[in-house]
Hints:
Elements: E1 5-10, E2 13-18, H1 28-43, E3 49-54, H2 77-86, E4 91-95, E5 98-100, H3 102-109, E6 112-116, E7 120-122, H4 136-144, H5 146-155, E8 159-160, H6 161-166, E9 172-174, H7 178-191, H8 211-225, H9 231-244, H10 247-263, H11 265-279, E10 298-301, H12 305-316, E11 321-324, H13 328-348, H14 353-360, E12 363-366, E13 377-380, H15 386-399, E14 405-408, H16 415-419, E15 428-433, E16 442-446, H17 453-465, E17 469-473, H18 481-498, H19 502-512, H20 518-525, H21 527-538, H22 550-556, E18 569-570, E19 579-580, H23 584-595, H24 604-625, H25 631-641, H26 651-658, H27 660-674, H28 682-689
Parallel strand pairs: 2-3, 3-4, 4-6, 5-7, 6-9, 10-11, 10-13, 11-12, 13-14, 14-15, 16-17
Antiparallel strand pairs: 1-2, 7-8, 15-16, 18-19
Helix pairs in contact: 1-2, 2-3, 4-5, 4-9, 5-9, 8-9, 9-10, 11-25, 12-13, 18-24, 19-24, 21-22, 24-27, 27-28
Amino acid sequence: MSDVVRLExxxxxxxxxxxxxxxxxxxxxxxxxxxxxxxxxEADAEVRAVALVCEGNTFIAxxxxxxxxxxxxxxxxxxxxxxxxxxSKPSVAVIHGTALGGGLEVALGCxxxxxxxxxxxxxxxxxxxxxxxxxxxQRLPRLAGVAKALDMIVSGQPIGAAEAVEHHIVDELFEGxxxxxxxxYAHRMVEEGRAPRRTGEQTRGLEGADNEALIAARHAEVxxxxxxxxxxxxxxxxxxxxxxxxxxxxxxxxxxxxxxxLQSPQRAALVHSxxxxxxxxxxxxxxxxxxxxxxxxxxxxxxxxMGVGIALCFANAGLPVxxxxxxxxxxxxxxxxxxxxxxxxxxxxxxxxxxMEKRLKLVEGVTDYATLAEVDLVIEAVFEDMGVKQxxxxxxxxxxxPGAILASNTSSLxxxxxxxxxxxxxxxxxxxxxxxxxxxxxxEVVRGEKTSHEVLATAMAIGKKLKKVSVVVGVCDGFVGNRxxxxxxxxxxxxxEEGATPQQVDGALRNFGMAMGPFAMRDLSGLDIGQAIxxxxxxxxxxxxxxxxxxxxxxxxxxxGQKTGAGYYRYExxxxxxxxxxxxxxxxxxxxxxxxxxxxxxxxxxxxxxxIYALVNEGAKILEEGIAQRSSDIDVIYxxxxxxPAFRGGPMFYADSVGLDTVLAxxxxxxxxxxxxxxxxxxxxxxxxxxxxxxDWQPGQ
Length: 701
């Protein structure tokens, strides 16, 4: 028997226990152990039923990531599950924590399933560019029905135990001790004379619905909403096989489709994204003994959209938070904004009224800085102006207790200068949330020159508590994300002066996979925000450089985007659908004339190179300057904060996949034609000359 799987007899019940910390992943030792244990139980004449439990905090939470990209080792998971399902003695899977991916497929191979009330089950393989390859696409529809199986497999999102019971994935819920619950259920199976109930032989889930119509509708939806993604359509095809083929043939079809996904370039990008997110939490120079401070309460300065969103992040995490505004009227608007935000979730059905009220009680509105004297963490989210920041931090320095962390949500300003407004720069850090803060996963943790190791560790810990993807970045104008997006947006606007329209640029980048085009994004955030940054940056530009002027012209005309009903696009009242803005065309013509540019037709490939390679070139400079620790951190920022397509792995991974020599050749061409905005990054030149990739590079090389 394997060291990570043990079998013991409890009377007529065979108790099989998996113990492979931390998440009982399905490595080769676990697969071998499961197969040997179930074989032994099957061969033991005194065993009449089997209970499968897992030690630790979870059931089997999926594949072993250490085996990703390595040659498969026997026994395969499909073979293990086939034996479990085909056994002559009834088995029950006792689920707690999470049963994900192969873990749920193992549970589906068992004849019965019980789950603790707080457990979750799911098949998240699509997030890695794959599909469930050990029978999940064939067995789940037979239990839950095609509609629910498609929901779970195509989205990759897990569901709770109660919902799993509702959809016949789990037979019943339990509370208390896992072993006791498993043995009790197994004894019941024996007493009631239950035979094996093999999932692969079930038909209930496939009956009573128009499966063909369900599959056609989901196919059309995925083709529209997940344009360019490879594996979701294969997931649908695999589920369709379950509706048309016997189990054995359906399993073969599943493996064929799984193999197609395995060979897709998108899989490599999505696996890169998976590992990059985990790597981002590792800070190379942070001592192992840097202990995070305890954060029991927080405060947010500023009750605008961003400030309220940040406050709700803390309430969602169960932490009390004070929300400070300048006066009672402003505070009333802020608290109503918080209630309205939660109210929208209640209306959608994603939050209960009871949960809303419980969270709102954690948000305390205040107007006096003195009330912040005992909080553990304060986050400033006021207007992006250094003078305003100075006033706030001088007040916080005066009233907050020693050891309280003072954080700024600035999106571009100098955190070192902000820290200098206090007598405790070691306690100052940047926490750059992305809007809407209560929705967006990304958190840039900005480390100042004097930010202490302890404060940095605390910032990362609080990011985890708030369920954010936290990435440490250094201090520069715009940090990583906004510094790069500035290059991207500038080049997009230069394309307008050369002859493109916003629709053409946005369309090309949506086809590339971006969640939004740059001009729709600017209209959404407000053109005045970018204008304020440009005014500040123009003062430091060398004489041979300037910005495009189209955005300035729109701002001068009062066209600031969605909030004014017009910007790069026009918007009908109450409708965010972008329509052509007839006032823009003469502005584009005038901008081209003033620059002496003859407008021309631009193709999609050129639009993509001009914008995406601007991101890459700036990313290379950021790496060499040490603003980001590693290229994968830049990818994590762009995947989680800027709508970069996950199936392309992030801008730096994308450049690696294209080839840095190819990228550099285009950057040099644009440098010669468009000027020093396109001066090649020395790191890009060096890596291309050495035939290396960004992912190979380490600081100091």
